[in-house]
Every structure is written in C-alpha cells, then in structure tokens.
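Researcher: I'm preparing a figure for a lab meeting and need a structural model of a single chain. I don't have an experimental structure, so a prediction will have to do for now. The sequence is pasted below. Please return the structure as tokens so I can convert it later.
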Amino acid sequence: MSTPFAQVLQRLYETTGYAPRGSATQKSARCPAHDDGRASLSIGIGRDNRVVLSCKAGCDSRAVIDALGIDWAALYPPELQGQGGQRRDPDEWIPCLDKGHRKIAEYRYTDEQGAVLYGVTRCDHKCFAQWRPDSSKKWGRRWGLRDAQGNKVRLVPYRLPEVLAAIRDERVVWIAEGEKDVEALRARPLITATTNQGGAGMGWPQDFARYFPGADVVIVADRDPQGREHATNIVNNLMPVARSITVVQAAHGKDASDHFAGGGNTGTFVQVWEPKPFPGAAR
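Model: Understood. Here is the structure written out token by token.
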C-alpha cells in the first residue's frame, strides 16, 4: 500500500502534468490552486507522517486540497484518520484552540511577488497569533515570527503588492490600525489599504518608508491617545518620502470598521490633520 505522501505526489502529477522534484521526504511542485510556473508548492512529511503542504505564493492548504480533488483524510496515515476518516482542517488550528477559541480570520503578509512571508490569525476572543510558513511543522507553520535559528522574518506592509501597484498608478493608499479595518476599507470600491502587523501595539517599522516614495497617503487614526500617537509616528516616518499625507478619524465610533458600521463611507471620515497637502491643491 502506498503512503499518503506518495499518493499526494501522484495526484499532483496527474493534476498539473509536472512531476514533483526533491528528496525522499521533501519536494517542490507546481501548485494546482493557481497558475504556477515556479513550482511554488512545498510538500513534506511532518510529525505523525502527515503530509504537509505550503504554497509560497499564498494559496492556503484548503485551496490546494480542493484543487487536487481529495479530502483532508488523504494527508494522514490510516491509523490517524479517526472515525469516518475525518481530521480537523489544519488551517483551523490556532494556539488558543484548547481554550475553546475559534479562528475567525487570517491575514497573510506577502513579499512583492505575492509569496507568503508570515501571517496573523484572529480568534473570536480577540487573540492574535503570528506565524510563518514551515513545512517541517505539524500544521505547516511555525508560530511566531522567528525561524528555528532565531532569525526574525522580514516585516512588510500588509497587502504589499496592492500598495506598490497603487503608488505606481498614483492612487491613494489608506493606512489603518489593524487588518480588520484594512479589509473594511478594501470592501469599498477602488480602495487600497494597508497596515503593519500588531497595529499601534507593535509600532510602525521605520524601514517601511522605503515602500512609499511618491505615495498619496490617508491615515485613519483610531479615536484614542494610542491611535493618535500611532498616526503621528507614521506621519513622521513617511513625511520625507510621501507626496501627500492626510490624517482622518471615524465619524462614527473609534475606527474604520465602526465608521462603516455606523453608516459612514470613505467620503465622510473627519479630517483632523493635513501635514503634507497634495501639491497644487487649492487652499
């Protein structure tokens, strides 16, 4: 009887038409969940002999499994498949799961080409857990932002490729305090938005200025002292490089999510500061 690893490799070959390459326990293959010309998918054998999948282009394991036409049980040896051959979806596991918490959102930070560098999960009790891809781990990720040698992952603005495209096309980039607010902004037509992992609590990294030369920026400051301080730090960081900077606050509630939930739109934020007006703007 062939192993789950061998079966998944065979299914990858049948689906993509390309044979996975690598060692006996770790291979690279074309990801079936996106148009992949770079062999972005890593396939390895984790603890308990479970197959671990990790797409460097950002596809989650669920999308890869669906594209292969198999179920989660196919990743496990028979003795671990459990009743009915079902296992918990690996993408649903979070460090606070044993406390009865449930993951409600996941935010992935990628490099300029869209390869996942790290991610943040959010649970229904507002726990935030950071992780980085690691195919040697049971769930295909290492919790925390450092690797096995203690090296910290490269930090980038959230949704970096979209940010760079907006700056190149001379479109406004909105900066909010947290991924939830970014996604609330992005749900509006033609809006590009970003943040830093951890928001005001972690602080805006000083080297982020290198991503914003010539950018037109709108910062949505939370309505509290920490939010105002965070916005000020971003202004000071981007002032030398951005073309224009405006700081606004929610007209309803504390943040961008509250603002939209209260009936506001992108045109009804309250402007509180314009440290760097758009060149040539009427005064």
